[in-house]
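[audit] Reproducing an earlier prediction to check determinism. Same input, same settings, fresh worker. If the tokens differ from the archived copy the diff job will pick it up downstream; this log only records the rerun itself.
[audit] input (506 residues):
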Amino acid sequence: MRVYAWTLLALTCCSAVLAEVRLPTLFSDGMVLQRNAPVPVWGWAAPGEAVTITLDQQQVTATTDAAGAWKTTLKPMKAGGPFAMTVAGKNTLTIKDVLIGEVWVCSGQSNMEWTVNRAANAQQEMAAAAYPQMRMFTVAKQVADVPRAECAGRWAVCTPQAAGAFSAVGYFYARALHEKLQVPIGMIHTSWGGTIAEAWTSREALAASPELAGIISAADTATERYSRVIYAQYGAALQQWLAAAERATADGKPMPPMPLHALPDPRANQNFPCALYNGMLAPLIPYRIAGAIWYQGESNAGRAAQYRTLFPAMIADWRKAWGQGDFPFYFVQLANHLAAQKDPGEQSGWAELREAQAMALALPNTGMATIIDIGEAGDIHPKNKQDVGKRLALNALAKTYGQDVVSSGPTYAGMTLEGATVRIRFANLGGGLTVRGDKLKGFVICGEDKKFAWADAVIEGDTVVVNSPAVRSPVAVRYAFANNPECNLYNQAGLPAVPFRTDAPR
């Protein structure tokens, strides 16, 4: 009877806690809400409970459904703050130091996760990082086999003491926007080093694509195999333990330890398809955002052909889930890395991955930061995250905020065969083409035999003319199409030309 009473009391206390008004962790002290747009607010309380949200001059209400969930929307607000937001039902929550400004998601793998305290000039950068209107919410790492409603994390105000732990790319991006726009900036940082794009994509999106459905089939097969092995190898041991536990309880003896198994569940791996979408992206939706920035691809570099489908599918998947239309999505093209190019015909998985990334620019409202000039041969993590953040921010300033800035380096726009030479045309001239150094480097040329040779290249107006004594009848040109090419074509705005090849992708 005493055990029953304690159990009843525990269940009663638990129900009382669950009945209290609760909010996702994103809605917490120091948060930044998106300006000039409707802002969803949601949470949980007792079924049928009325909840009132008050912020600045507006007040909205919601009523929970049968499952205890509620959701409402704040009207668009101008940039400003700090404010206090109250959420009142049977209990009242107060969220302090709320700012209204621009909110961006920053995601990807280790180069997005890379922190300010490991970037170039880290000590000077941290000492100068006094930006009280810049905040970053870092999502705690978690995997999940179904979409989660909540995640752990907190909003941190940008101070010299806190900034060292911020995503460096996210910080330098936010700083560039803040200095130009003069409004609060909130960054929601959700990344995990060494991860693949399919881990950040929903099951529905992968399964809907004929080219990607095999990813789901393979994942399901791995899960089924794991379940069969566990049942066969672990089931018998578990049955024996249950019998031993019953005997121990009847004899008043200590409970025997539960048997363990060494076989890892594939669903617990961060690279299991959909695992990070479920665990680290779904909990953020539908928090109102201005857009997203993305730095990933190194872990997919061996599957560039698949990435041509996978990456656009992931972008479309995020946009569909958020329900904000084609929100801005700006991404980083992989840096130069590994041994410097010596063979003009080098085969390069990294170059092909960069090409696949650039193909995603066919999607509306996208932009790319090319960093083919700031990588490191011996380190997959370039320390110069300042230029990465700045170049991403140029895309946002030009395309999202309508500022008169150049956002891209020269991009291939076409070619003309002129006897033994090839004339290459470019878009995104940014004031005109220029070379850094005494002569252009990074161009290779070939004939019908597909044997590439180093090419001579010169700028003529808004074009580059390419030729080689070794190739009398050229058919194709490539530029910076290697793991770590030596290349030096820029526009007058100081942005590097985007690597390209004129021959059709394989």
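[audit] rerun output stored. Observation attached for the diff report: The radius of gyration is 27 Å.
[audit] end
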